[in-house]
Amino acid sequence: MANYLEWLAQETPTQWWHDSGSPDEIDAAFAIGATGVTTNPVLTANTFKARPDFWNPRVAALGDDMEPDDRAEALLKLVATYAAERCLPIYEKTNGKLGYALGQLNPKQAGDAEAMLAQAERVRTWGKNVCVKLAATGAGMEVVEKMAEQGVPVCASVNITVSQALATARAYERGREKAIKNGVKPGLCIVVQQMGRLDDYLRDVAKDMRAGVSESDIQQAGLAVCKRTYSIFQKEGFNSVMMPCAYRFPRQIAQVAGGDFILTLPVRTQQMAIEADLPRECGIDEPIPADVIDRLSRVGEFVRAYEPDGLSEREFITYGGVQKVLSQFVESGWSFLEEYGSTRKSTRWT
């Protein structure tokens, strides 16, 4: 009998990707239905820590004559291109619909469109099935549109609000229209929805406000944003593909099952989903109860995340949850990569 993730990929429109760059984990995930690989600075750092025997010869071959940001980018490239190579058979089999690896841009430059665009032009050369991954900030929207115009696969991450997701989809549509007009084949666009990261942020805010919002309600906040985004995407007919992620317990996976999108799951979450033996039912169209939305709406930061016009594009980078995710990417990932395997030390803290 197929396990839950195999059922999901085989019997519903939902596909899932593996959320890690570790070689052994990639192989195991592909064996049970994964069709792509997500990487980011934290996941890249984690695979170097977990498998130094595999990566250190490749790291040593880079030499020691790079600036910290250049080194971090080079290390991200090692993992992303390895993952892309492993994904290539799926990419070929699906004619480019699936089988991608994500290569993320420098999270320290999330507000700098010019810097992100310059790095995106480098990342796009890493492989035909490497998808440029960037932060869904106002500056990021400019890069999404430009990449779409050039037919480059793009993924907008650090996205935890409805307004960010809609802005990304619209930026992609503008670029896609230009691509088609110029005879360029449109590339894939993925719109990440980091549900659990919104929950984590709102939990702190609600407690600080003494808003009287229960943990049960908080655990449905990211789901509410995801479901509302998906409903609008379906209504508007956007050509982007959503990627719900950052699950905090198995039931969240069951509640988005059946959506025409891609989940991305780390090993622990994969195991939890399989062991929980979740019901083989599609939960994406099941609404979040109105009374839950009413209670969550006591928290202004939830309203800003949930309403389609809750944030303007230039407010994306100022939203507390976005800043929290960017900080995690920098402090737990990028800063580690700046110095990994090198005798040169970053001067970022001096």
Topology, element by element:
Blueprint lengths: L3 H8 L3 E5 L3 H9 L5 E2 L2 H10 L1 H9 L7 H26 L7 E4 L8 H11 L6 E6 L2 H12 L4 E4 L4 H20 L7 E6 H15 L5 H4 L2 H16 L4 E5 L4 H7 L5 E4 L1 H10 L13 H7 L3 H7 L13 H20 L11
Parallel strand pairs: 1-2, 1-8, 3-4, 4-5, 5-6, 6-7
Helix pairs in contact: 3-4, 3-16, 5-16, 6-7, 7-8, 8-11, 9-11, 9-16
Chain oligomer state: single chain
What is the terminal-to-terminal distance? 57 Å
Mean pLDDT, all residues = 95
What helical percentage do the residues reach?
40-55%
Rg over C-alpha atoms, rounded to the nearest angstrom: 19 Å
The low-confidence runs, each spanning 5 or more residues with pLDDT under 50, are none
Q: Compute the number of helices.
A: 16
The strand count comes to: 8
* Content-based structural category: alpha/beta
**Proportion of strand residues:** 5-15%
Q: Per the principal axes of the C-alpha atoms, what is the gross shape?
A: globular
Strands side by side in the biggest sheet: 3-4-5-6-7
Order of helices and strands: HEHEHHHEHEHEHEHHHEHEHHHH
What does this structure look like?
This protein has about 350 residues and is an alpha/beta fold. About 55% of the residues lie in helices and about 10% in strands. It has 16 helices and eight strands. The protein has helices spanning about 5-10, 25-30, 40-50, 50-60, 70-95, 115-125, 140-150, 160-180, 195-210, 215-220, 220-235, 250-255, 265-275, 290-295, 300-305, 320-340; strands spanning about 15-20, 35-40, 100-105, 130-135, 155, 190-195, 240-245, 260-265. Strands 3-4-5-6-7 form a five-stranded parallel β-sheet. Helix 5 crosses helix 16 and helix 8 packs parallel to helix 11 (about 220-235). The mean pLDDT is about 95.
